[in-house]
Amino acid sequence: MFVTDIKKGINRAIGRWLRDRIPASRSVLLDNKKLFIFPTAAGAGWLLLVLLTWLAATNYENNLVFAFACLLSSLFVVAILATFANISGITVKYVRSTPVFAGEEAIVEIVLLQQQNQSRESIRCGFARADSVLTGLAAVEEQRVHLAVQTTRRGWLNPGRLVIETTYPLGLLRAWSKLDLAVECLVYPRPVKGTPLTVNTSGRGDGPLLSNEGADDFVGLKDYRVGESLRRIAWKQYAREQGLMAKHYADPVDEELWLDWDAFDGFDREARLSRLCAWSLELARTPNSYGLRLPGCEISPNRGEAHQQAVLRALALFEIGPQVGKAET
Amino acid sequence: MTQIWQIPRLALLWLILAYLSVVVLHFRHLPAWISLAAAIAILWRVQLYRGVWSLPGRAVKWMIALICVIGLYAAYGRLIGLEPMVALLTTAFTLKLLEMQHQRDATLVIYLAYFLAALQGLFNQAIVDGLAIAGCFLVISAALVALHQSSDRQSVYQPLKTGGLLLLQAMPLMILMFAVMPRVGSLWAIPIKSHSAKTGVSDTMSPGEFSNLGRLADVAFRVSFAGDAPPRHQLYWRGLVLSRFNGRSWHSAGDYGFGLADRRMQWYNKPRPEWAQAIERDGKPLTYNVIMEPSQQNWLYGLATAQPDSPGVAYKRDFTLVSPSPIIAKTRYRLQSWLNYKHDPMALSLQRRAIELSLPPGYNPRTLSLAKRWLEETREPQALIRRALNLYNQQFTYTLKPPRLGRHSVDEFLFDSKRGFCEHFASSFVVLMRAAGIPARVVVGYQGGERHPDNNYWLIRQYDAHAWAEVWLQGQGWVRVDPTAAVAPERIELGLEDILGEEDDFLADSPFSLMNYRHIGWMNALRLRLDALNYGWARWVLGYDSEQKQLLSALLGVASPTRIGLFLLVTAGATLALLAAFQLRKTRLNSRDQLDKLFLRWCLKLKKHGIERQVGEGARSLGRRIAKRDPVLGRNASLITENYQRMRYKSGHIDERELRRFRQQVREFR
Hints:
The complex is a heterodimer of chains A (329) and B (670). Helix content of chain A is 30%, strand content 29%. Chain A has six helices and 17 strands. In chain A, helix 2 runs antiparallel to helix 3 (63-87) and helix 5 runs antiparallel to helix 6. Chain B is built from 25 helices and 21 strands. In chain B, strand 15 (397-398), helix 14 and strand 16 form a beta-alpha-beta unit. In chain B, helix 2 runs parallel beside helix 4, helix 5 packs antiparallel against helix 6 and helix 14 crosses helix 15 (422-435).
């Protein structure tokens, strides 16, 4: 317990320090300030190799072997520079990412580019909690990399910091950086199908009406005439003994559907959003216009790609806010 | 995440090459069956890669390992020692090749390869061997680079290039470390190599031994004098003093007869004042460096009264030099000698005198009676010595092919065969002297040498091995007497090669030595040049230890650890900064920027023709404008503008060759 607390505390402190040192940016040039370098396990093994060779040389008082012990240790020092040079000077840019539904893998596209005309090998990049990709930067001046990140929750994707590292050429040292690329990737709620939608055609009105006869906007009440659909009877007014009246609509051709927060009574917030999301996808396939009504947010009915995205975005960011979530280490 | 790791194709290729190079490097001291094992291992590995065969099971692996250990034991008779260890590591290396399931296994194999390649330096240290190890390092480094390379799209040789570049970059720092890093010296006793025969002068002398050395042209040691070298006839390189005679062969009497204080060795840096009385030295000392070839023996060579000035060298009471451990690698040491000296001039201890006079009873009766006859005529030691030398001079022959001698070897030589090599003369002379009551002993070592014409150093070869005598005279101490000089003075003045070079047996055991072609002018020049190279190698690489002290003192004033550390830090820092500046240079323009720069340079050239590019004017319209003004100039100009336009605005990478051509066009534009 205590130990994990300490660990958390240390991690938080490192995170703060990293935030100050390498602030969030969509484009980062890897330079001396942002790169770190340290021997790998293989590097420690190499030092053991140097020690053994040195021991052999010393014990047999053999200068030729001594020279090669010097060469091995010198190679280690040169490898520091070579490893650093392999990654230094690369600019990492966040390109884009396509929104996904929670539970799916988000693909974050980044690009590595360089001003130098230098061939770079074996650069591994990946987000902290996702698989990494091994790539190089040879001959071409830029390299696109697609990184898959598993999503769990709706809202802004928080993939953590991008770890970009290399151990090339000898694997003795690892030069790395942890970048906050200010990834803006929207994660929509996980769609959950199967719950029937109580569509409220008249907006505020009650009643589980699935559809209305080809009308859109409520205009007012008129006296009921025989032959009119029974569904148009304004039963409330009748109950208040105001006489039999019928509701009338201005646009009898188009029908307006509302995805309403209140339609899923008895579900918690995330469950409601998931269902609204599923229905919004469903409705987008029909020729109908549909609107979204959430507490404190209303999108008037419309159709088309942009509208769908606006609806999904509203669902994704409901009670989260529009700002990008800060990446954690 | 558990993933089946498959070694990259390129890495496997280079790894197998690295493995092969190491096995070939050690081929000479590995049992023959290891090459068979190597072939099987490589085949298995390749089949594994192709997925045809599978990994050996645990039982099979252990069985193979056991068989290998038994095989090694059968080959060497033991598992301790340098050669069995190298063989063991090689087999481990072979087996590990089959077992690579992770990247770290491959890394381990590569590290083993580095270690084994470096160990080759313990066996052979010639320039060629150094180069061979360096070549191995190159291939191994290529394997290590290939292992960490991300893609196979590079050419097969790319890892070799990268590895080679890294090794080259590592060179300056390596040389610096080699030059400055202090040598600690042996940390624990080390097993001696088993198969290497002891060479050179041995610690016993029996008839026929030196004539065998006369057949060898191998270098025994090289000597460079700080000032002028003494004349050749003074170059007596003392090795061992042999005082005990058993009738046939001479042995060292060791410390027997010395007082306790005289039995110990004297180290170079620990003066022994009580020994100062044992020797009187006169005049300026002669300073010189000796580079010994490995002899597998403990003793070292130096001129008379040599006083060592190098760690690891001591001298004994009889002023012979010793090393605490056998010379298994080229060894360099520094000596000082005084050629005017008196060695034990006052007195010999009673026991010591008895040893230097003792003769085995029942041997060489005719020699003893000859000495007795001489004694009746004179008791004057100088006269007795002269008499013996006269005898040799008048009646004896110096030859590499002395006849075999029986039980009374001295008798047979003196009275019957009268043909002999240096050991016959030295042995019979000492017996004669002892029989005449003069303390005498045999000294073995080398005499003379070949002076290298370019560099001021001397080459002493095995055929320069020599035996002579020392007699003790009251007031003068031990005096060197060389009976060989009496019979063949040219041997001392010119060297063996000049007087016996025509004999069939000379160099009979060195058929491939370049010495055999010394009569051909350019071959001789080549031979000397090669030896100069070897000398430099021996002096500056193999025997650097003694050079280091002087070099550091010259550089730093006092070679204290702090100064050495600081010096290393500063110079290494400077070297690395230079390398870093070279590697991390950020200003390197990309090809598009270079193109723009070239275009601007061309625009400057245009000004000489009175043409100036308008603000906002495109390259193409500029070209057309020039063509309208001056058709001749315009032809070249439009070539440049068209090329510029095409390259600048095409998508993707600019071809390096095209850029070079464009640069050429701009440069040639007048």
